[in-house]
Amino acid sequence: MIRLEVSLSHRFPEFHLEVEFTASAGVTALFGRSGSGKTTIGNAIAGLLTPERGRVVVGGEVLFDTALGICLPPHQRQVGYVFQESRLFPHLTVRQNLLFGRWFSRKSSQLISLEQVLRMLDIAPLLERRPHGLSGGEKQRVAIGRALLSNPRLLLLDEPLAALDGFRKAEILPYLERIRDEAGLPILYVSHSVAEVARLANTVVLLQSGRVLRSGETEDILADPEAVPLIGVREAGAVLPVRVEAHHPDGLSELRADAEVLWIPQCTAPVGTRLRLRIHAQDILISLKRPEGMSALNVLPVTVDALHEGHGPGVAVRLTSGPHRLLARITRRSAQALKLEPGTSCFAILKSVAVAQDDVGVSPH
Amino acid sequence: MSWLSPEEWEIVTLSLQVALWATVVSLPPGVLVAYALARFEFPGKQLLNGLVHLPLILPPVVTGYLLLLLFGRRGVLGAFLEEHFEVVFAFRWTGAVLACGIMGFPLMVRAIRLALEAVDPRLEQAAQTLGANRLWTFCLITLPLMLPGLVAGAVLAFAKAMGEFGATITFVSNIPGETQTLPSAIYALLQVPGGEAGALRLVVLSIGIALGALLISELLARKASRRISG
Amino acid sequence: MEPGKQPRWKFGAICVLGAFLVLGLLSGRPAVAQGRVLVFAAASLKSALDELGHQWQERSGGRVVLSYAASSALARQIQQGAPADLFLSASIEWMAVLERDGLIRQETRRNLLRNRLILIAHQPRPALRIAPGFDLSGALGSERLAMALVQAVPAGIYGKQALTALGVWEQVQGQLAQVDNVRAALALVVRGEAPLGIVYASDAVAEPRVAVIDTFPEGSHAPILYPVAQTTESRSAAARDFLQFLTSETARTVFESQGFLMVQ
């Protein structure tokens, strides 16, 4: 069911924005470099910016349509906006900030209660404090809670973790996963961070210079070798849905991806949890024969599906293993030496320790 | 510690009354004009800005004369107001309030505009996305955040009103009990040989009131600032 | 041109200009030097004195500078050392103050002019005449009588004297609109904001838009005299000459055309 329809056109002095995309429930990531127009799209959807031409429909309600002459002011759009710099009201307590939107929302449909938000974001101890003394991560969690409590049709997050350090980011990501899975709202997540997108998004819209390059399911986009230049060679990598089988006493966790087994350093998720694993393309080795006497624990039989040559010495290779795909980045020289071409059977090798904590997230459901 | 004579008491209380009313009455339009100048672009904006600052540049007597032309009993607006609303400014303390209010208006608008411009418009945007329309955003977010500046502007206007002479006496003349404010009384005393002593007493009183107002405003502004920064 | 990289000559030029400015300010000598006569005169004498100043300059070749303000302000300035040569006051009291302080040459002091106090109106009122106990309050109705400050400004002081002498002060004292100078009272009557006003006869001459009702009897108030004197500081022979000129027949013509009377 389509929850968000966006089609915008606006001419800026620096570039021309011309986008069109739709989104369903779950997290839709707007991914692109700085200056690709992501924030502009967010502002246009929220009504903080009026594009020259376009149409925005959220949950069946037309918020903006130049053809019909509709342009709802921001306060009528019910778009919960979480800004990069939190923008909490300094003269109000956390509680007052959270409940600010409550006042103005129609009482008829309160999707989320204060208690739910406090629990989801773990901010109950902060209630009577002022924004002044909160840490960056705490501020962002309050900002997210505030947006949720304004009874929005759509949650819009504009690079919400950009102003935080790595530690705080890692701290908040689980909360965002929870929001994604429990809040029941369509979420638009604007970001230039592949890690965040890989972890959270159901669908990805790739933006470049104000235009949509491609859009689709996260697994498809991240496994697409042709998207590698835009995503970045170091950041590129597919995501793999897995299930926690067991935790072993030597500190490794056993994960199952259909027929195959993967070993990663111990994760905290209980047995049976569905996880999403992000595997960096540059961490995968390809071998024509199954290797022996080697340290890496993860050896998966795969078939070469597609190759894409970059400008440099590298080549991106999409490998399939059953229904799943992996992305590997190797040198062109090696690809030629191994005579890799679509259909070649080979093995994908991944070091367990190459998988970081950040690369492991809860699978969207 | 010499107490004041009954006439002096009357002068002081009238001055305070006029200055307080002048400040209170000019606050809403002052905030409105400051908001328009700070947040909007519109044709005629510079003209409005110039008009607001006129009382600052014109000799007070000229301002007083203009008020007389407009709001005197035979004045363009004065006659209309008297006939339809029974509002009279000429030779009444209400006229003194009008004169003092107008003279202090530019100072107030400047201070409030500065405070407004210091309020982060991104916070106002955030409030709007949460469902607050412009008016609510203004009342709940902008106004509390610019409160220290607002207080400063009000005090400036009050102080100016306490010291206003030229426009007041030209517009509503000097009528003990109605329009004889402290500056009028001081002026009259200085006209007479030997009146300096009496004038000095009133001057000391004026300074005392001004300092008192300043002190109160400092306290209020500090309290408001503390609320904002938690 | 990048900031901070102005050519040297510009900087030098500004310095030189600045030096000239400072020197000019410092070297400004008061008008006493170079035989210029500085006259401090009450504001009500402006029209008459401007004309006389011109005539004197023409016939004598000297220079006269006329400075007008309220008599009280002028007197205080002289007390503080203002370099005036002549003081022409609208008030006896302030001249007396300067005399007491030894700031004027007593041998030059004389009463130069007289004036009369009149009642003016916004519109002609043939039925209204000044007489002891006349119904001024009734004539005002609910409106006010425009006057200069009755306790401070000469015109107001004389006015109150006159009204008291005629026995009508009690009835009108709550109906006054007092202003800081007599011309402002005139303006109120011109505008119609006040139906009646008390001003000098000389003020009415200058203003055709008011109707003169009547003149207050001379005995009802202290004589309205305009004393003149040369200051002790003044060493100017030209000042003496101008003072003499002010008592001449030519001066009389000009003064009387403005509504003043010469003192014999």
Shape of chain B: globular
Helix percentage of chain A:
10-25%
Put simply, the count of helices of chain A is 9
Task: Report the average pLDDT across residues of chain B.
Answer: 89
Inertia-based shape of chain A:
globular
Poorly predicted ranges of chain B: none
Q: Based on DSSP secondary structure assignment, what is the total number of beta strands of chain A?
A: 21
Calculate Rg of chain A over CA atoms.
22 Å
End-to-end Cα distance of chain A, whole Å, is 15 Å
How many angstroms does the end-to-end distance of chain B come to?
A: 43 Å
> Which chain pair has the greatest contact?
A-B, 31 and 22 residues
Helix content class of chain B: over 70%
Query: Mind summarizing the main beta sheet of chain B?
Result: none
- What is the subunit arrangement here? heterotrimer
What Rg of chain B, in angstroms, do the CA atoms define? 20 Å
> What's the average pLDDT of chain A?
90
Strand order of the largest sheet of chain A: 7-8-9-3-10-11
Which features characterize this protein?
heterotrimer, A: 365 residues, alpha+beta, six-stranded mixed β-sheet, five-stranded antiparallel β-sheet, 9 helices, 21 strands, C: 264 residues, alpha/beta, five-stranded mixed β-sheet, 11 helices, 11 strands
Characterization of the model:
The complex is a heterotrimer of chains A (365), B (230) and C (264). With 365 residues, chain A is an alpha+beta fold. Chain A contains nine helices and 21 strands. In chain A, the strands form four sheets. Chain A has a six-stranded mixed β-sheet, with helices on both faces. Chain A has a five-stranded antiparallel β-sheet with strand order 2-1-4-5-6, with helices on one face. The longest helix of chain A is centred in the middle third of the chain and has 17 residues, at 166-182. By secondary structure, chain B is an all-alpha fold. Chain B is built from eleven helices and no strands. Chain B is globular. By secondary structure, chain C is of the alpha/beta class. In chain C, the strands form two sheets. In chain C, strands 2-1-3-10-4-11 form a six-stranded mixed β-sheet. Chain C has a five-stranded mixed β-sheet with strand order 7-6-8-5-9, with helices on both faces. In chain C, helix 2 (46-60) packs antiparallel against helix 11 (249-257) and helix 3 (71-79) packs parallel to helix 4 (92-100). Chain C is globular, with a radius of gyration of 23 Å. The chains are: A alpha+beta (365), B mainly alpha (230), C alpha/beta (264). Chains B and C meet through helix 3, helix 9 and helix 10 of B and helix 3, helix 4, strand 7 and helix 8 of C.
